[in-house]
Amino acid sequence: MLEKQASKSSFILPNFISGLLAGLMALTSSVSYAALIFSGSLQDYLFVGISIALISASILSIIVAMGSSFSFASAGPDSNSSVLLALMGGSIVAVSEGNLTGEQLLITVWVTISLCTVLTGFCLLLMGRLNFGQWVRYVPYPVVGGFLAGTGWLLVVGSIQVMTDISLKFFYLKELFQKNVMVHWLPGVFVCLLLLYVPRRIKHYLVMPTILVGAIFTLHLCLWLAGITHTQAINSNWLFERYSFSIPHSSLSLSAFFGVNWHAVMHQGTKMAALLTVVVLSILLNSTGVELETKIDCDLDRELRANGIANILSGLAGGIVGYTSVSRSLLLQRSGATSRLSGIITGLFCLLTFLVGMPLLSYLPKPVLAGFLLYIGMDLLIEWTVRSWYRLPRSDSFIIILIAVVIGMVGFVEGVLVGILASVALFVFNYSRIGVIKHESSGFAGHSNVVRTENQTKYLRVKGDQIYIIKLQNVIFFGTAHSLATKIRNYIETSTAKPVRFIILDFNMVSGFDSSTVFSFIKLKQIANASGITLVFTSLRRSFK
User: Fold this and answer.
1) Per-residue pLDDT tens digits for 359-395
2) Rounded distance, CA 446 to CA 467, Å?
3) Phi and psi of 173, rounded to 5°?
4) pTM for the full model?
5) Integer Cα distance of 366 and 375 in angstroms
6) CA distance readout (Å), 475 to 315, 425, 432, 512
7) How far apart (Å, rounded) are the C-alpha atoms in residues 522 and 28?
8) What is the dihedral of CA 270, 276, 281, 286, to 10 degrees?
9) Does an H or E element contain 537, and which?
10) SS (HEC) of 428-495
11) Beta carbons within 10 angstroms of residue 325's beta carbon
């Protein structure tokens, strides 16, 4: 009996402790992302954002923990999706400004967030059912790096706004260096530097939670030494408002639910498409990242299905988009988690915080949480613009930087589209440099395996130089077909001493060609006819005809 109890204790205790640690991280990130989304004109409704973020974190963590390939998986709101949701919120504010009341504006943003979450969930579930998991691996690597770098920049901008209520734009840079403003963002920068430096030097799963908890206590100590009361700290933008538990829906009037600006919601169509792309790529990156770190095989289709169901339930509860987290999943695994119980405890911790711990959130300093956002943003920027410069080809690095710049200056969707176009152009350029000519020879030097008579062999020795044989390879498309036609034309023009009478193109090693190459071969035939040359195609497979 004692051995059974000890075995049960050794099973529950590690999972319980690791679940609480991951729960603390999930709480910190959820509140940070809520502050990012509900900033600016929406900051008066931050309590709604925090509530739905905690609800989402609890649902996502529990459902993904139960359905993931990894027994230690943890999920919740993430930086990449939160950035896009923040952009949607800002766009809705811009479109609806002056036309809606504060409540109507809030419900319009909330409906958009919930709709995005449900639609994303259904798309993920469908992709998982159709076994699309492996296909998402074909997205160009520089595009993935570029959107992550762009996400990093938007997180940096968002974190500064959370700390100072000032948008990080060129015209407002001077305001950031005023004494009363600097005092708010310098602690966040210090927290960011600690998070960037210390975990790389000290490899332990408790390092990051310790830094965050230590920063919270240190800032409260500084406020106490400065004689600033809790109420004064809230009014001075050091701490969040004091919120009590309430269902977010209950704080809104019934008329607000009928005042949704559907035009503004539909206006977010392209951002919704970008959000789905970002979520799918993030699930791929996060799942493969956990797979590489833990050396445990993962079923991407299963991950898509689990995250899809979790997002559907989260969206129906009014929650925000989320998915598997690399950092929290690895935290669970490295802190001793042995079963899915750890991820469930992480979700229950967030749910318990929503039910009874909302007043405690007013003790979370904004600079610490914004510093956490700043750390994520800077880590992404450094990883994909600095470190990638030394491990990737220069062309890929330039595309990554190009995408990040376009995202920062124009928009997220535009940046990703520019990156895809640049990657396609680079691929075409690089592939066109791969020669389609495997070997070229004359009829004199290149004999077939056919046994010929003495007269035929003699004739080939005399007239063989008038036969031009080209063995082709790889895939022929418009770029390589044009260069092939140009090469043959130059050969015809330079062969004046013994003019060419036959050109033989051997397609035996060609794996395929696109329809645009037909025009190049038509042009080649016209050149041959004009010069009195017979054009011969050999080894053409039925699929080419």
Assistant:
1) 777 787 888 878 887 887 888 888 888 888 888 788 8
2) 9
3) -60, -35
4) 0.67
5) 14
6) 46, 17, 10, 5
7) 65
8) 140
9) strand 534-538
10) HHHHHCCCCEEEEEECCCCCCCCCCCHHHHHHHHHHHHHEEEEEEEEEECHHHHHHHHHHHHHHHHHC
11) 29
